[in-house]
């Protein structure tokens, strides 16, 4: 069964335009156990993603992506030169995982966090819950479709 996700990234680190250029990319550097578990246990190829820019002038959903490869060990954790290095993670006993995502569509306009907050049918969305800072979070089909409608995607 297809699932829906919101994945956050800072646009100066990796943006929707970067994904559009690259077409597919591994989603590395997740160092939160709950977000890792979503990738390891729940994300499957074909799952739909709302691509969200955070820590920027207008945070919000900027496009669509899709999971194209199931979770596999995040090799950046093994590289001492990587900002995602974790000496407790090894190839024999990986601690962190990643999935591959593919570009689907860039929205003509950002669906801003404020716009999402002002949409009554989205009030229960995990993104809007106080203290939720996860970079990956599940969505229900209604939330996904509502944001796509706002974007006229």
UniProtKB/TrEMBL annotation:
SUPFAM superfamilies: PUA domain-like. Keywords: Phosphoprotein. Residues 3-150 form the EVE domain. Pfam families: EVE. InterPro entries: 5hmC_binding, EVE_domain, PUA-like_sf, THYN1-like_EVE. This is EVE domain-containing protein.
